[in-house]
Amino acid sequence: MAAPNPGPKGPRVGVFVCYCGKNIAGTVDVKKVAEAAAGLPGVVYATTHEYMCSDPGQELVKRAIREQRLTGVVVAACSPSMHEVTFRRAAQEAGLNPYLLEIANVREQCSWVHEGPAATDKAVRIVRAMVEKVKGNHPLTPVEIGHSRTCLVIGGGIAGIQAALDVADAGFDVILVERSPTIGGRMAQLSETFPTLDCSQCILTPKMVDASRHPKIRILAYSEVEEVTGFLGNYRVRIRRKPAYVIADKCNLCGECAKVCPVRVPNEFDQGLSERAAIYIPFPQAVPSSYTLDAKNCLGLVPLTCGECAKVCEAKAIDYDMQEEIVEEEVGAIIVATGYDLYPKEAMAEYGHGTVPDVIDGLEFERLLSASGPTKGQVRRPSDGKVPREVVFIQCSGSRDPELHKPYCSKICCMYTAKHALLYRHNVHDGKAYVFYIDIRAGGKDYEEFVNRAMEDDRILYLRGKVAKVFREEDKVMVWGVDTLTGKRIEIRADLVVLAQAMVPAEGTWDLARKLRIACGSEGFLKEAHPKLRPLEALSAGIFMAGAAQGPKDIPEAVAQASGAAAKAVGILSADKLVHSPEVAEVDEDLCSGCKLCAPQCPYGAITVDEVAHVNEILCESCGTCVAACPSGAMSLRNCQDEQVVRMVQAALAEG
Amino acid sequence: MRGNGFEPKIVAFLCRWCAGAGADLAGTSRLSYPPNAVPIRVNCSGRVEPAWVVEAFRSGADGVLIGGCHPGDCHYVVGNYKTRRRIYLLQKVLAEVGVEPERVRLEWVSATEGARFARVMREFVEELRALGPLAMNQEEKALPPQGGVHA
Q: Which of B33, B61, B79 sits opposite A653 (nearest CB)?
């Protein structure tokens, strides 16, 4: 339906109203919306289509742009987050600058939430406002920017290692930052992995070696990301390298230093089940392969205080004068793979607050099962070193408990508990294993079969129900629970209790997210740009995520996600050029008084002021906060100018 | 206006990353709420000029909603803090000229809070229904032209 009197010089706007099948047209009278649009000043063409995003729909838009010589387009359809790109590309193909096309969101913010004539009335208002905006839009050209070809990977667990290897194999430099003295992460601590019972270290350490030998990968262990500035393709990162007080290249791993060190502190790698010296190597295959002197626990870095380690070091690798170092790097993309911690058993009042020595968590049990662990792989309980004859495994400890603990399912516990119980039975042939569970969630390739094997072949007794209380009685651990299938109360005098604690984001995830300006969801896991369609990307362009930092997941999922994130990062690193939105702030130098109010508003340092203000259009991220602060109207945001929005407001509120 | 009761007119300035995405999620989740507000998307709540709010009242709005990211979660780091100061000041100025400060509502809604967005809309409409029409619009008395109020 062509509208009358199109002025020869004035705007020529086309309005395209989508039915979206019944999604919009089921509530909004789309024909009426198009009719109302056709009567608006400046609108020369208005029509509808069943599915505007379909090829014929896009063709309709393109043909109208050419035939009606449109100077602006409004597509009234779904959220701009869905098809803005689609239609702007179509506009460009038809010869219209893409920034002259806008989406009026009449689905998510109208037809899906309202009904009756009021929905149609609101849709008309939304379209009217958007027509006013388009009339004020200017054609723009994206700004081309150069970018760094280096990728930063934060976190050296299996996800970070895999991501680093994939990016490096694609031919790009990688900086792999790990805050502990070695890469390897949680996977290095595990004994065997479900469902194949592969030895975890045996399959992990070759990848660690690959990463350390890769000419494109630079590992910065014992380092933390201090500050991140910049933007997609051009992030500037400050990395703090903590002093290890041992020169890695000189250290020959003889271990004499640790033998003479008088300090003994709990060994983190064994979850505190063993002790280590202040100078230590987390495990023999650590990468980088060197001892680290932990200054916090060292008697003193002044040789007068102790100095025993330096005395025995034949390689002269120990340097008490080593200083903290700040490394500054430019990177094009960032992959965050910071992993998880276990929800502390100290938080479990019902299970003894972490004060009962023979109540341990899943990672501690992994260390007991591990050949490299404190008991050399023999299951012995922490209190007295005896082999436990009755072991109770409690699933969902801290998970699926919205009242007291974490509301979510930690996803891997059903599987690793089955593995724990099975390995325990293999280890202690006459031992009895009980598993308390709420549900068995064994979704995954060969997972269900694995749990069945544990139940049937290894005769592990699965009890459906929650454990109400765990407490110490003499040298036993009493477990009070209920079997909800029989309704019977259950009391077990166990030798050892293993809690499948909930997975939580690794300590510091939130702080790091702040530095990266990316979001965490309600439980502190990193938030993805779209839970289904953009699960690897943060909302900030150029930042990706992999592994349990994004949510509970097992090794194959973490590895798959890491490879996916690497592919995404390579997409940026390998691009010929990157473009930056041109919808940035700009200064009318004739109006600017040089008052400097704008500059401190800018979180990106994009504004400098001499006589007048200047905007660095590559640094500007288009928030417009400076514009709202400018008292003289000199600052404006391209295609979101004051006059435009004022007209949008008027159009939104106008009667009729 | 629908029926005999008073239906307030509202303009909702929603930031693209949080409140706007939350409004989209309310739609995707089919959480219905009253249709009184016309949404206008901005990149950041920090872009919202107090003068726009004044203009909305001049043009017949009974209420203005500004939706941004939760404090600490702003996509542009600190834009919402600037918004908070500006809107607080604006409410004071508006009160001086007889516009009830409750007619300007600043809400933090994250991209995952579709339900919260729907609830905010329902509450705001209820409150404005109780407040009644903006008196100066009834009297057709106008504020000074736009452009006069800045943070």
A: B61
